[in-house]
Amino acid sequence: MGRLNILLLGLVIFCAMLVVEQQHAARTLFVELGQERQAEHQIEVAFTRLQLQQVALAKGERVDEVARTRLDMSPPAQGAVVFMPMEGGFQRE
């Protein structure tokens, strides 16, 4: 009877150690999950900022200003634009 009690005590201690180890692993994973969620949130914020910046840079006024100042472009002269309808032919402005 004494050997059985010692065996059972050893088994209980072994199981308790496994439970402690698994709880530690679960807590470690939970902390990592929180860090990953925070990183995901930061990436989403950065992506939103980039989208807003892209919209601001793609506005017609901005494109026109860059074309005029940096590229020294100007609108075409009157009569130099030719409109072509879908049916064929052309029309002068």
Structural class computed from helices and strand pairing: mainly alpha
| Strand portion | under 5%
Sketch the topology as an H/E string, one letter per element.
HHEE
How far apart, in Å, are the first and last alpha carbons? 110 Å
Count of helix runs: 2
Q: Mind telling me the C-alpha Rg?
A: 36 Å
Low-confidence stretches: none
Give the strand tally. Answer: 2
How many domains comprise the coordinates?
Answer: 1
Strand order across the largest sheet = 1-2
**Major sheet characteristics:** 2 strands, antiparallel
- Estimate percent helicity: over 70%
Mean pLDDT: 89
Oligomer: single chain
**Structural shape:** rod-shaped
